[in-house]
Amino acid sequence: MLFVLMLHSCASQTALKYVSDVCGNLKGVALLRNLVTHKSSVILELIGKWKHLEFLILGSTHRLEEILSRISIHCKDLCALHLGNANICKDEAMAIVSFLPKIKSLF
């Protein structure tokens, strides 16, 4: 049983969808910068399948507000968010506060 998934930036949409379908109990997902930037549409689609997600690592703030909005709806157990190589400005900070008010760990 897979609980944590880290995908390389060259992962295909097919691979992303397959892993999300097969590994419904994912507790952690790490998405590298290029993956977030180039595959954000499919990531937004798949968030609904990550019902048990507890921590998320995003390598980019690309479409962060949309991602966090979906997470707030579908990932009720999320307690940790890591935004690597990200510039957190007012809009990003407001999205985090608005959509993840109970977040316990942000780094």
Summary tags:
single chain; 107 residues; alpha/beta; Leucine-rich repeat, LRR (right-handed beta-alpha superhelix); five-stranded parallel sheet; 5 helices; 41% helix
Overall pLDDT confidence: 90
The number of distinct structural domains comes to 1
According to DSSP, the number of beta strands is 5
Order of helices and strands: EHEHHEHEHE
User: What's the story with the biggest beta sheet?
Assistant: 5 strands, parallel
CATH topology: Leucine-rich repeat, LRR (right-handed beta-alpha superhelix)
Query: In the CATH hierarchy, what is the architecture at level 2?
Result: Alpha-Beta Horseshoe
| Spatial gap, N to C terminus | 27 Å
Q: What is the level 1 CATH name? A: Alpha Beta
Strand content: 15-25%
The geometry reads as globular
Question: Structural class, judged by helices and strands?
Answer: alpha/beta
Helix content percent band: 40-55%
At the fourth level of CATH, the homologous superfamily is Ribonuclease Inhibitor
Q: Using the CA coordinates, give the radius of gyration.
A: 13 Å
Description:
The protein has 107 residues and is α/β, with parallel strands linked by helices. It has a single domain (4-106), classed as Leucine-rich repeat, LRR (right-handed beta-alpha superhelix) (Alpha-Beta Horseshoe), CATH 3.80.10. Helices cover 41% and strands 17% of the residues. It has five helices and five strands. It has helices at 13-22, 33-38, 40-46, 64-74, 90-99, and strands spanning 4-7, 28-31, 55-58, 80-83, 105-106. The chain has a five-stranded parallel β-sheet with strand order 1-2-3-4-5. β3, α4 (64-74) and β4 (80-83) form a beta-alpha-beta unit. α4 (64-74) runs parallel beside α5 (90-99). It is globular, with a radius of gyration of 13 Å. The N and C termini lie far apart (27 Å). The mean pLDDT is 90.
